[in-house]
Amino acid sequence: MKQFTIYIATLTLGLINTVYSQDLHHKIDSIRNLHNVPEVAYAIVTKDEILTVDITGFHKFAEQTTATAANIKDYFHLGSNSKAITGFIAANLVEQGKLSWQTTFFDLFPELKDSSNTAYHKATLQDYLSHRSKVHAFTSGTERLTLPIFKGNKQEQRQAFAKHVLTMDPIETQDGYTYSNAGYSIAATMLEKVSQKSWEELAKEILTKKLGISFVIGWPNRNLENQPWGHAMQYDVLESVPPTYNYALTLIEPAGDLSMNIENYIKYIQLNLQGLSGQSNVLSAKTYDYIFNYKERYAIGWNTLKNDTISVYDHAGSDGTFFTYTQIDGITNTAYIIMANSGTANAQQAVMKIVQAMKEANK
After folding, report:
1. Handedness of CA 274, 280, 285, 291 (dihedral sign)
2. Number of structural domains, the chain?
3. Tens digit of pLDDT for each residue in 246-300?
4. How many Å apart are CA 363 and CA 105, to the nearest integer?
5. Residue 154 φ then ψ, to 5°
6. How far apart are CA 261 and CA 77, in angstroms?
7. Quick one: DSSP state of residue 242?
8. What radius of gyration, in Å, describes the C-alpha atoms of the chain?
C-alpha cells in the first residue's frame, strides 16, 4: 500500500489561550497544505487536561466539500500505535494473574514446541512485546505473500500464523532487537489462550466496556459512514484509497489495525500519563512504569529515549494510507498527538513538522 487552554485575570487567560490555539491551528493547516495532507487531527494533553485539540482538512484529497470537511469525531487508523494498546491489554491480564511477563509461548502451547525452532523456546511475553524474540518482522506485504493460506476464524488464523512463524530461522541482531509485527500476533495468541477470548473481544471488553474508549478494527471508511479515506501515492499521484481495496491485516491486527477518533485516543493516552505520574487507574502505577521503562530503546509498545537531559516515549504507526504519531515528554508529562489520513513520505514529514510546531507553542 506504500505505493498508493479575580474575573479580569480569568478573562485574560481565556483570550491568550484562544489566540494561542488559533495561531497553532493556522501553522498546522499551513503545514498540512504544503505537504498535500488531506486531513490532520492533533492534540496536546496532560494527565488531566486537554491543552488543545483540533482538526483540519478534508476526508478526501480530491473532494474538498462541506460534506467531506474534517470533523473532530473522525476516525483515523492508528497503525503500529495499536501495539501499545495490545501491550496495555496484556498488562491488564498480567495484573489479573492470567499469565506473567515471563510466560513463554510454549508454556501455553507445549504441543507445538517440538515442531518449532529451538531459538524461540525461551522467548517470553515481554520478549514478543519488546521486539526481543528474534521472530521475523512481517512489516511488508511481500513477506505476507509468501505465507500459506490459514483457515478458520481470526483467532484460529493467528494461532496457525504463530505456529508457522516459530518454525522459521531466527533474526539475529547485535543487541537482540528486531522490530516485528509477528511478535505482537504471537503475544495476542498467548492472551487469547489464557483469557479464552479473542483479541478483538479483549479489546472491546477492556477498552470500550471498562474504559469507555470506542474503536473500530480496520480502516475508518470500511467501518463507519462519512469518514476519512486513507491516501497513498500511485504512479506519483496522491490517491484516495477506497474501502473496497483488497488489503487486510487479519494476521497482524494486534500489531497495527485499530482506528479511533482523537477524543477516544486522548482518553487512552491520559491513562498512560496518569500512570507515568505515579497514579494508578485501571493499571497500577508500577505496571505503567514497567510498560514504559522495562527496556531501553523499546519497552512494551513504546520507543524509549532517556538520558541525563531528556525522557521521551514515542511511536509512529502507518499501514501506508494513514500516519499517526504520539510523543510523550516524560519530564513535563505532556503528550503530543497527530493523526493524518495519508501515509506518504510527504505526510510523515508534515507530521514531524507539526510535532515541532506544537512543542514550540507549548513552551
Report:
1. negative
2. 2
3. 988 999 999 999 999 999 999 999 999 999 999 999 999 999 999 999 999 999 9
4. 46
5. -60, -45
6. 9
7. P
8. 21
Q: What cell does 46 get?
A: 496532560
d(CA 126, CA 100): 9
Please check whether residues 218 and 327 belong to one and the same domain: yes
pLDDT per residue as tens digits for the range 152-194: 999 999 999 999 999 999 999 999 999 999 999 999 999 999 9
C-beta atoms surrounding 46 within 10 Å: 16
**Residue 142 neighbours by CB distance under 10 Å:** 8
Q: How far is CA 2 from the centre of its chain?
A: 18
Instruction: Identify the weakest region by mean pLDDT among 129-133, 255-259, 304-308.
Output: 304-308
Whether residue 324 contacts residue 81, with contact meaning beta carbons closer than 8 Å, is answered with yes
Both 217 and 312 in one domain: the answer is yes
Residue 122 has pLDDT above 90, yes or no: yes
What are the pLDDT digits (tens) for 52-88?
999 999 999 999 999 999 999 999 999 999 999 999 9
Sign of CA dihedral 58, 61, 66, 67: negative
**Quick one: 164 and 293 in the same domain?**
no
Give the containing element (helix H, strand E) for 297: strand 297-298
Q: Cell numbers of 175, please?
A: 543487541
Pairwise CA distance, residues 309 & 207, whole Å: 34
